[in-house]
Predict the structure.
Amino acid sequence: MLFKSIGKNFLISVIPKLIRYAKAFYMLIAEFFIMAVIGVDVGGHAIKAGIVTKKGTVLDKEVVLTEPEKGRETVVNNIINVIKDLLRIDKNISSIGIGVPGVVTRKGYISYTPNIPLANFDLGKAIRKKIRKKIIFGNDADNFALAKYHFGAGKSYETIVCLTLGTGIGSGIILKGKLFSKDGAPELGHMTIKYDGAKAKCCGNDGCIESYIGRKRFSRSPLEVYKKALAGNKQALKKFENYGKLLGVAISNFVNIFNPDAVILGGQMSNAYNLFRKTMEEEIKKRTIFKTRVVKSKMREAGMIGAAVLAF
Amino acid sequence: MLFKSIGKNFLISVIPKLIRYAKAFYMLIAEFFIMAVIGVDVGGHAIKAGIVTKKGTVLDKEVVLTEPEKGRETVVNNIINVIKDLLRIDKNISSIGIGVPGVVTRKGYISYTPNIPLANFDLGKAIRKKIRKKIIFGNDADNFALAKYHFGAGKSYETIVCLTLGTGIGSGIILKGKLFSKDGAPELGHMTIKYDGAKAKCCGNDGCIESYIGRKRFSRSPLEVYKKALAGNKQALKKFENYGKLLGVAISNFVNIFNPDAVILGGQMSNAYNLFRKTMEEEIKKRTIFKTRVVKSKMREAGMIGAAVLAF
């Protein structure tokens, strides 16, 4: 009788309860280990978005063209659509981090962005109209630094200077474990390294780094020059040697200012690392007061992962 | 009878108690308002020490020669003696802050100082042997920034870059209310502003600011050039114009990096501010991405007061 009653109770009330508790426990663990957010990296050419876990793993991703030439509305729609696509895959996601190449508030007001038609525009408001989630914005180079610091080459360091070498030179700085960012600063890409040097087309700052080693200085596309250099073309090799020398001067300045544990290089041009490494290191050795190490980033999707860090 | 008893009690026990309480209260207030420490600024030429209140007021001070040419022992004794003199004036002082032009730990180990024979030496230990008080060390340019931030021209700002223009160029940075300092950094004085420029005699960094506008670039003593300029000597005026231009290039770089609320100039050479101001401002206007203001420090004894801040 007693046994029967226990058996009945067990079936009717305890088992479903146990199942519920087990499920709750599983969800708790799952959330702890695989809680994911969406990270979006808005670039001049492409928008890269992904579902990123707390551990920095990209579970799923999508890349679409930015299409800046089609105007603001198209760009905004492209961003919204890529986020919606990812939200269809995982409906539980509650936060989204978005990186923009320019000066942006955490809420998404963009006061400056040179390569996309989103300057002086409240991108945050436009996206929130369509997507009712928590959305946080940040600068793309800052996000690169955050990704490096949390999951990448900067993981074991406290103070890092990150440079993204592309069309321009982006920069993000982590000082003693904290991102340093102030209304668009740091803007390391336009530091003067030769005050009476090349007339600036970018910032008004004659002889700035970017006017020397920005992608525009390569008379033809960098990829073409890169291929020629790999094939042994002396002129192409010389270009990368010079690139290394000037980048080395700039890095030395940053080292003397911040005394960083490491300088981390990313961006498209960093793929030619082996071609400019030697001259860069020579210059750094000669010019720095403090010791540091320069590391080439191996992390793919750093922009996307860094944007996700904003949302954690 | 009752009255008599109260009167007696009053005289015997209450009045002394009241006096004791009043005195304790007075001491509490006094301590709150005029708690003082000793601040010591060890320079290449002179040691300036003072009794400084929490409000940044110098109650008493003493200046002695550093005498670096007489060797380490003399310098150490000069520092100890000047502190002892001030302790004789106010025996209640329990903390001492000391600024050194070089790389120093908070406990007082000096790993680098170019102009005084105290490099690779535990100055803290040597002083503690003779003076049993709480003693904290810091870099002199950092202290200048602390003084500015707490009591001077930087008081109303959150992020400031301070430059001391003297024989060399010292630098201290307050970022969002906190001193940024890392094992000798920031070392802004040796930033390259012309990578193929003047051969460096200071840091190995060809074309660094200091090699352009350090005091050594003035063929005769700056004071003499200053007097000549004031008297209208064209060559002397030209020197200061050039000084302003190059300082402006350097300041622009710092502005683009830190986006500071203000840049504060101190040190002996800043006395010629009016002679180099115009060219400096022209250069800054041309080269900066962010807006800032440049302020000439009016605070006397900033090094001493900043050293005192360490001890509060």
Remarks:
- Chain A has three domains: 1-33, 35-143+303-311, 153-296.
- The longest strand of chain A covers residues 46-53.
